[in-house]
Amino acid sequence: MLTTVTMLLAAGVLGLLAVIVAYVLGWANYTFHVKVDPKIVAITDALPGANCGGCGYVGCGEYAEAVAAGRAELNLCAPGGSGCAEKLAQIMGVEVGQSLPYRAVVHCAARRDQRLGQTVYLGEPTCVAANLVGGVQGCTYGCLGLGDCVAACPYDAIHIVDGLSTVDYDKCVGCKNCARVCPRNIITMVPFKAERMLVVACSNKDFGPEVKEVCEVGCIGCKACSKNAELMSIENNLPIIDYDAYESEEQFAKAREKCPRESMILVGKPSPKDLAAVAGEKLPDRVEADFKTTVDDTEWRG
Q1: Which of 34, 98, 131, 135 is the most buried (most CB within 10 A)?
Q2: What is the CATH number of domain 13-99?
Q3: Is residue 229 a contact partner of residue 253, using CB atoms and an 8 Å limit?
Q4: Taking a C-beta distance cutoff of 8 angstroms, is the pair 239, 222 a contact?
């Protein structure tokens, strides 16, 4: 009899505790509930969830809050592209303007064997560390080629080729990670109005004689490009391209022809016209040096 009473008492106490706890949890859920804007949820679902930070916000969640509050543009998500911007516009009930894809451009064209005045660097194998050491290479503006940008890219879109950071435009989404970690700030984001874009692949602001002492392909500030292309000007001994008025690479054909160096190059994907032009060419079984200088034959890397 005593055992039965004890069991019933215990069951009653547990039942009462369960009711009290359920009441407390229900009260806490109601009292401390944080209302979430349905637009924020919808925007977050529309974003790719890469959390790359290319939009300038900590992650997709913070960007979604900024868009919902009207504090951010709808086309800042590089991985999502124009399709993502259109979805956000539908959610916000507005129209989205033209969204040009921005891609990374390395403003240096010098491969390892084209750089002069290099010394052996035995320090920490990072660009940040090497940038603090004087005399690593003659050009204090050029790519260090130690791969900080490679490690920072979540899309495997940039690699070190012959000591130079080289962008794979089939994979680049314009997340800006490479630009943020480059200690020399020679990687920028360029609006790609076409599959291929003309860029100035040099960052050396010194005068011509000084540039020739440290690099075989760097811009010497001769102004031949600005004299032959209306959309080019010279600032700090370097050509500047007016991308707002940029329409096609043909606008710079004469400027490229007159350039005595290799600092004006085409980057991106070759056009169908370019592919058709070399469709019938056969690669030689063996490639041998012809002992020409870099000025004799300019190789436009695209």
Answers
A1: 131
A2: 1.10.15.40
A3: no
A4: no
Q: CA–CA distance from 153 to each of 23, 176, 178 (Å)? A: 50, 9, 6
Look at the domain 102-277 and name its fold.
Alpha-Beta Plaits (3.30.70)
The confidence score (pLDDT) of residue 58 equals 82
Residue 184 has pLDDT above 70, yes or no: yes
Average pLDDT on 115-139 reads: 91
Instruction: Please determine, for residue 151, whether its predicted confidence score (pLDDT) is greater than 80.
Output: yes
Bridge partner list, 265: 199
Radius of gyration of the chain (CA): 29
**Residue 216: closest CA among 111, 106, 107, 105:** 111
* Phi/psi at 84 (5° precision): -65, -40
pLDDT higher than threshold 60 for residue 52: yes
Determine if residue 119 is left, alpha or beta; phi over 0 gives left, psi from -120 to 50 gives alpha, anything else beta.
beta
pTM: 0.70
Burial 274-294 (b: 16+ CB within 10 A, else e): eeeeeeeeeeeeeeeeeeeee
Q: What residue spans define the domains of the chain?
A: 13-99, 102-277
Sign of CA dihedral 211, 176, 167, 159: positive
- Residue 97 sits at the vertex; the CA angle it makes with 94 and 101, to the nearest 5 degrees, is 130
pLDDT in tens, 206-217: 999 999 999 999
Q: Reduced to 3 states, what is the DSSP secondary structure of residue 232? A: strand
pLDDT of 272 strictly over 90: no
